[in-house]
Amino acid sequence: MSSEKVELLQGTLDLIILRALSTMGPQHAYRLAARLAQVSDHPLSLNQGTLYPALVRLEQKGWIKGSWGKTETNREAKFYALTKAGEKAVHVEAEKWRRLAGLVDKLLLES
Amino acid sequence: MSGARRFFQRLLSAIRHDRAEDDLAREVAAHLALLEEQFRSDGMTPEAARLAARRAFGGVEQAKEHQRDARSFRWIADLRQDITYGARSFARSPGFTIAAVLTLALGIGAATTIFGALYFIGLRPLPYADPDRIMRVFEYLPPRDGIGAPRRGHPFAPSQLDVVRKSASFSDIGLEIPRLMIMKAGDTPARVGGSRMSAAIFDLIDVQPIRGRGFQEPEEHKGADNVVVISHSLWQRQLGGRDDVIGATLTLDDRPHTIVGVMPAGFQFPPGSTGEIWTPLVPAATPPAFRLPFYARLHDGVSPAAAQQEIAAIYDAVRGTNASNRPRLEVLPAKDVLIEPFKPAITVLAVAVIVVLLIACVNVANLVLARSTVREYEVALRAALGASRSRIIRQHLAEGVLLALAAGFGGIAIAVAGTSWLSAFGSVGPRRDMLPGINIPRLSETAVDATVIGFALAVSVLAGLAFGLIAGVRRPATLASSLRRERPRWSWLGVRGMQQSLVIAEVAMAMVLFVGSALMIRSFMHLSSIDTGFTAEGLLSLQVTLPASRTPPEVTNFGEALIDRVASLPQVEAAAYAESLPMVPVGRPAPLSRTPVIPKPDPAAPLLDVRIVSHDFTTVMGMRILSGRPLAAADGAAASRAVLINETLARQMFEGAPVVGGMLFIGGPTFDPPGRSGPLQPWEIVGVIADVKQRNVIDAPAPQIFIDQRQVPGPTGVTAINLVIRSTGDTAGLLASLRPMVTQLEPQAFIDNVAPLNSLVANTYARPRLYALVLGLYSTIAIGLVAIGIYGVIAFAVAQRTREIGIRMALGARRYQVRALVVRDSALVTAAGLVIGLGGAAWSSRLFEGLLFGVAPLDRGTYAAVAVAFAAIALVAAFIPARRASAVDPVTALRAE
């Protein structure tokens, strides 16, 4: 079913964003998009049409918090930072992902 | 947890829509600016960098749209849009909006007012714990004189309670009797209502005092019963809400009572009463034949039917009856007993309310239909631009609900005003010692509370959805056809057909209501024109109460002395006094015979109505003497005993034989000399008086006698007299000169219950008056709405047919012919509605059973008059647009196309 696919992709994207914020510290959407494009093999697969919904989703879950600030070039941008709950969520979500990836790996090897 | 958090955030962001939108726009703009900066630093020209940034970002609107979907809920956004759009569209047609909202607000307000009253009186549970298990028990005695319905009586006396309490069906059993007491607080005595009741009642209803305690069983004995539990309001009003209220003393009927408890605010017992003091019921002080209202709490799991069987067995044991001669017994929920007398009126009012509400809805539906025709192009355009059918229907529903909710809030405002008007009728009548004429329990408590508001809003939403469906279900016209400005087809399935069916329906419904209210008004007019047999007009009545310790001769001497002084006042034309006034309930067991032998008691015989009066009372009251003479000043204490009897008694007892000069033998405590009871005492009949109304204007007169207060041998049990005064001055002036006279004769006496005598008479039919008033008001609203509805539909049809009318006139139609064309249309619809409505009124007239006096439910004159009046109103409503139609200038009409 396509909805499951979307669910999985969403979860993945959320984890990637959380992870990026966890390693790089507070970031704005532009920098996050650039980072995602950098780590992904297909830069166009993650357009802003998926990034913005993911950010609002994570913010509503209380994992990240956006606040307006200035970039190094003194332009205004909305910076997203991990919250306390978000820091915990990075570990939980990463663990979930590993378990899922392990399971899929195992299943793939068996067949 | 984060999932639930997100759900609320999504709901919340629908409210913070504008801020979130600003934030998003700013964020995207910042993102683009950063991209642009990047490209510029890569060496692009500003223009090229701007374009490149746009390209790199992708679809800005799509990204925003996706973010909105994730941020909020789609349907909320849609609804928001629909509401904004609807509000704008209503603002563009203020005429329609104001007419629709006002009409519907009137309907909802009228409906909510009556719903509130019906809810507070009938639907709301009694304010006790587990109130559905609180029961009453009744016995049914044969009617007096063998006519009418069986009389409902109370099965047990206080002294029998010990046996009755062995019942396994009931957990608590208690008796209660209402009483009025004179409370002395400082120098001013006042009458306070309350009850004597069993201590068990507190457990039975499971409401405990907020201060102190309820009384207990040891206090149900003589000497220990000088305790009182008071209401919260009396505590606040009389005792200033003081903290040390428990143990304080209250003087009631000249006896000091210790306050042992204060009930919570709003407490009432018996249900629906306004009593403020409760004292213990002392079985030993109550005559064994004195059976009192019975209350009991049913054990869990016991059905009223099972309890009824058990109580019948107990009844047999207590009263010595068996299944063959035991009267019918009935166990009924206390609440049902409370609202029983109002069931017919409640049904009628509920129907009236539904009718008014439906008529208001029909009118608005007609407006919505008319508007939907006008908006056809707009809807077609939306459909052509890609709006789906369901989206268009949703739009209509949102608009309908928006309109109806606006009306709903207006309706609530109307209901607040209506409720305060209506609840004022529930207050006490002209005298404390007679039932307030309306006496609808709990009516005075009626208020617009959360339930009532919920009702108004629910009705609004339902009506709104209905309007939305009416406007939305029609398949939208194609853009092409609506651009060609095709006129809607003249068919019964089209807008016009629907409008005409709706008008027929509302005319029919209004007819039903109109006939009903006309019947009620005629009934009220009948009641108010009944000859009472005395002249109440211009007479003032008032009560003077003496301390309870005064002896009968002292009361009589006071009365005689006072009346002499009052009569000497310059503004007083005539004055008399009596122990009781007409229309004030009185009953005195007095065996009566043509011989000195005490007759066998007959429970079905009518009670004798004994009136103890000053000698010229009947004259001052304008009562007619049929034969013989009225009582006279000479009929004093020393004179031979004289009695005046009414024609009913003369007829019943003497059956046409000569009466005046004959002897009547009367017994009972009042007529036996003190300390002696034996053979009946002889009284000489000095005159026969024409029948007067005694308790109300409806009941047939009971046998009645008038005797002079000075000749009463035994105790009357009353230390008060009622004055009737005919005077030329104003009441305040009269009272000012009266008060010192009273105080001079008896320093502790006080005056109250000051009321014009005709208000006491009117009070007995205050309830039919209220019904007639409310129904009359509602049918007036209904007729007004229908007239507006007919006018609106015809006016709309005329506007739609301007071209046709123009052509007809160009071809030579005369103005009167055009008018006839329009009026005929309306006349047909009205006639159809009238016929259906007359049928409906005749069919529903059985609802009025028991509510009508002196007019038959199928009174032909009323039906005919109502039909003619309604037809005339409909004709006028149609004639206004017809005149406008005939004023159409054919050239203008045709050129406008």
What does this structure look like?
The complex is a heterodimer of chains A (111) and B (897). Chain A has one domain: Arc Repressor Mutant, subunit A (Orthogonal Bundle). Helix content of chain A is 67%, strand content 14%. The two termini of chain A are 22 Å apart. By secondary structure, chain A is an alpha+beta fold. Residues 1-8 of chain A have low confidence and may be disordered. The radius of gyration of chain A is 15 Å and the shape is elongated. Chain B is an alpha+beta fold and 897 residues long. Chain B is 50% helix and 15% strand. Chain B contains 27 helices and 22 strands. In chain B, the strands form three sheets. In chain B, strands 14, 15, 16, 17, 18, 19 and 20 form a seven-stranded mixed sheet that branches. Chain B has a six-stranded mixed β-barrel with strand order 3-4-9-6-8-7. In chain B, helix 12 (343-374) runs parallel beside helix 23 (766-800). In chain B, 42% of the residues are buried. Mean pLDDT of chain B is 88; it is low at 488-492. Classes of the chains: A alpha+beta (111), B alpha+beta (897). Chains A and B meet through helix 2, helix 3 and strand 3 of A and helix 1, helix 2 and helix 4 of B.
Features:
A: 111 residues, alpha+beta, Arc Repressor Mutant, subunit A, 4 helices, elongated, B: 897 residues, 7-stranded mixed sheet, 22 strands
Please provide a brief summary of the model.
By secondary structure, chain A is of the alpha+beta class.
Order of helices and strands of chain A: HEHHEEH
Q: Could you name the ranges of chain A where pLDDT drops below 50 across 5 or more consecutive residues?
A: 1-8
Order of neighbouring strands in the sheet with most strands of chain A: 1-3-2
* Number of helical stretches of at least 4 residues of chain A: 4
SS content category of chain A? alpha+beta
CATH topology-level name of chain A: Arc Repressor Mutant, subunit A
Rounded Rg of chain B: 37 Å
- Strand content range of chain A: 5-15%
